[in-house]
Amino acid sequence: MTDLKDERFDRRSIPTDAVEETWTGPDGWEFRKLDWQQDNPRGSILFMTGRADFYEKYLEAFHDFYARGWNVTSVDWRGQGGSGRCGPHPHVGHIDDFSTWVGDLVALFNDWSTSHSGPHVVLGHSMGGHLVLRALTEKLISPDAVILSAPMLALAGGGMPEWAAQSIAKIMCVIGRAERRAWKAVEKPLEPQVLRQGLLTHDADRYSDEFFWFRERPFVRLGPGSWQWVERTYASTKLLRNRKRLTQMGTPILVLATSSDELVDHPTIKRAVHLIPKAEMKLFGPEAAHEILREADAVRDDALHACFAFLDRVVPKA
Prior knowledge:
alpha/beta, globular, 8 strands, Rossmann fold, 10 helices, single chain
């Protein structure tokens, strides 16, 4: 197999044959969409990013799958990237409830799966993985296979019990701060100041891509989540701990995870993988931070090879 890093790709440019367009949801909300299709595809992948993400961050990963024959589609979540904002502050990630995002995903999946050739694979990173798994456990989408990258099944613990953290968030919402930022401009709520890059990737160049896009397209930039986002996160993650729903899922799932993740809770991911009948996990250690598909070459190559092998096995070529 060709070494992935031998294929040069400009991470700071939209591919000339990819289409940027608007997808309009059932309620009229306008979402920013990137669609990268090809002739005689292997199948189609719907790539849903994480909290505060935007699709430009994952252009390199899109290319990796495209180069293997897959159509790739990605849509910025409602309220972030180029899909508008749900609160008054352009740099605060706010949402009324995660069910809103689940509804968006269901409508998008239904539209995408009827207009793009199969097999149909959904890939979700972090919060995107959380929302994909919610839609799966609630039997609202039916892809042929799923890949979850560091899925946010629970927030990483910070020495505070979850019930206490959720209670604080509820109080802040009650006193009128629901749409205000819940933490300073780092990526770890309710934690002391830490270096953001160390939470996300060991690769400084890939980390800097994000800031390139902030300069090129300032509208994609988003900062901390709101107190309502924090409170609704705890409420939504509890829904994913339904043992019965997890054990009844029949979709093949590959989970990419790292035991060193400081943003999402690895033990919770491990328990979920154990419960889901057709789930398997590719586990990394201290060599990988949260954004596994934006990590240093050795980690990325390993993760991508795991993805390709998984897809070749569970959705073989026709």
